[in-house]
Specification:
The complex is a heterodimer.
Chain A lengths: L1 H26 L25 E3 L5 E8 L3 E7 L2 E6 L9 E7 L3 E2 L3 H8 L11 E11 L5 E10 L2 E17 L2 E13 L19 E15 L1
Antiparallel strand pairs in A: 1-4, 1-11, 2-3, 2-11, 3-6, 4-5, 5-7, 7-8, 8-9, 9-10, 10-11
Chain B lengths: L2 H28 L15 E2 L2 H4 L1 H18 L13 H17 L2 H24 L9 H27 L5 H17 L6 H22 L2 E2 L4 H18 L6 H9 L17 H27 L16
Classes of the chains: A alpha+beta, B mainly alpha.
């Protein structure tokens, strides 16, 4: 029994260290709280980017959509997050995006449902308080102002690569500051991140809640 | 909670436990160990031989693994998400109960406290270890692990004593009723609590068939320790991994099963075993029932939904 406890403690300690490291890494990117959105950006591998746009909390949004009862399309949002980005249309490889979303800020217009989503049955927000995104690549796609954003999504402690379709909104000014904006859309299979509550036995869309989650991020930010 | 989950958390473990109990009874009857005058004798009920005593903890632990599979759809010993760590809790609970079952009844209170408390503390650590500040500090985590370990140690000892005075089918009936009600009460913080504690309750009920067959014997020797660890771990998880902490819920649901020990008081020693059963379950069911009454309406709110803030807690 003692040996089992010691072994379990060692494994638990290792798991805690790894988990804490992941959380610290995710939280270090963005201390502010904003409605997060995914932005296409190419990662800079060596040095800190010279141009940085900070997410505008008021004018950015993170939405998600999931099938309900196999027929409906249900939407929700996250109200708190932050991040930074830069889209360089002249040289897309210079673009980047990183963001952190506070999972406890989920908002579906129903307080009971929001609490349920935060709890262990769904997001387990106490153990995994944030979801983070870190871009790894950005490139032009077919169509005007269309791009592809590649990056690592960390959700419920699991990190997987995703690719988002990005529509660049353009460059402008807002209240005297240089401003950029874009919209990014991607889909995930939530079971791949360990979230299988109410998924159909075949892993499809016919269960109480579908497996595929569409995430739409609308991002706007001002140059720092 | 679909049909599959309900079956895997109730009927299947109950049926499997009953079958295993029948096999155990048949083997004992063949060896005529049921008629042996040897072995330990509890306060008011005879003990089963060691080979039969280990059935309870192992069956209850196995049933919990099955229930965990029902809602997790996979089994890992050390998964990343704490929500999926009940299998390792079940193994610890089963081991603690097994150790308690192996010793003579005269030593069982001590062994159940020691091993149950250690397993209970481990269970609390499994869950609280993944939480970070500001939810819990390191000092608070240590305090809570110690507190839960202590509570489980006490509960394990009380359950072992109580089950000794509830021989045959009575002990399993009492555990089934109380654990099932506690499971409903925990849904206030965690909707899937019945999927973890349901197998504990129903496997115990299935073992009640063995209790019918073997007469006035303690068929759950050692199982009280296993059950105590599962209750402590489930209560810890429900409190810390819901949307918020609910201390009254935690305390009430850890106190309720302690009241099963009322049946072991000297005032009831001379009473009939069925009287002791009623005395044992009355207070725990009342206490846990109040909490279940608070929790369950929220869980099924939308079955008779109004136009305002209607939410089917199912989905």
């Amino acid at each position: 029994m003692t040996r089992m406890l010691k072994t379990s403690k060692t494994k638990l300690a290792a798991a805690i260290v790894l988990g804490a490291g992941a959380i610290v890494a995710g939280a270090a990117w963005s201390p502010a709280v904003v409605a997060g959105t995914a932005v296409a950006a190419s990662a800079t591998t060596a040095s800190q980017p010279e141009t940085v746009y900070a997410l505008d909390k008021v004018h950015s949004v993170a939405l998600f959509r999931v099938r309900h009862a196999g027929v409906g399309f249900f939407w929700g949002r996250f109200n708190a997050g932050d991040g930074e980005f830069f889209i360089d249309t002249d040289n897309p490889s210079n673009s980047f995006f990183r963001a952190t979303i506070q999972m406890a800020s989920v908002d579906t217009g129903n307080e009971s449902r929001d609490k349920h989503l935060q709890a262990a049955d769904f997001f387990n927000a106490r153990q995994f308080p944030t979801a983070t995104f870190e871009s790894t690549g950005f490139r032009a796609a077919g169509g005007e102002n269309m791009y592809e954003l590649m990056g690592d999504l960390t959700f419920m402690g699991e990190t997987k690569p995703i690719t988002a379709a990005v529509e660049f909104g353009g460059n402008g000014t807002f209240r005297g500051k240089e401003t950029q904006g874009f919209e990014a859309v991607f889909e995930i299979k939530r079971t791949e991140w360990g979230l299988s509550t109410y998924v159909a036995d075949d892993g499809g869309e016919g269960g109480g809640l579908g497996n595929t989650v569409r995430i739409v991020l609308g991002v706007e930010g001002q140059k720092q | 909670m679909g049909t599959r989950e309900i079956l895997l958390a109730t009927i299947v473990p109950g049926f499997a436990a009953a079958v295993i109990g029948l096999i155990g009874w048949w083997l004992l009857a063949r060896k005529q160990q049921l008629n042996a005058s040897g072995g330990d004798h509890g306060a008011t009920s005879m003990e089963l031989p060691i080979g039969a005593r280990i059935i309870g903890p192992l069956v209850i632990a196995a049933a919990t693994l099955l229930g965990a599979y029902a809602w997790q759809t996979s089994l890992e010993i050390w998964p990343r998400s704490a929500t999926q760590r009940f299998p390792v809790i079940a193994l610890a609970a089963g081991a603690a109960g097994l150790l308690a079952a192996l010793v003579p009844s005269g030593l069982r209170i001590v062994t159940s406290s020691v091993f149950g408390g250690a397993a209970g503390a481990f269970g609390a650590w499994v869950f609280l270890g993944v939480l970070q500040e500001p939810i819990i500090t390191d000092a608070e985590r240590l305090q809570w692990v110690g507190y839960i370990g202590f509570r489980v140690a006490v509960l394990a000892a009380v359950l072992e004593v109580a089950l000794r005075v509830l021989p045959g089918v009575r002990g399993p009936l009492a555990i089934w009723a109380v654990v099932g009600t506690i499971a409903l009460g925990l849904t206030q913080g965690w909707a899937n609590a019945p999927l973890v504690l349901g197998p504990v309750a129903w496997a115990t009920l299935g073992l009640g068939l063995l209790g019918v067959l073997v007469g006035p014997r303690n068929v759950l020797a050692g199982s009280g320790t296993t059950i105590a660890v599962m209750l402590g771990s489930a209560a810890t998880f429900s409190n810390w991994f819901g949307d918020t902490e609910r201390w009254p819920m935690l305390v009430v649901l850890l106190d309720a099963p302690l009241l099963l020990g009322v049946a072991a008081l000297p005032w009831f020693a001379s009473r009939a075993a069925w009287i002791r059963l009623l005395v044992a379950v009355a207070a725990p069911l009342l206490l846990a029932g109040v909490q279940a009454g608070i929790a369950v309406p929220g869980l099924i709110a939308a079955t008779t939904a109004s136009d305002d803030d209607a939410y089917d807690y199912g989905y």
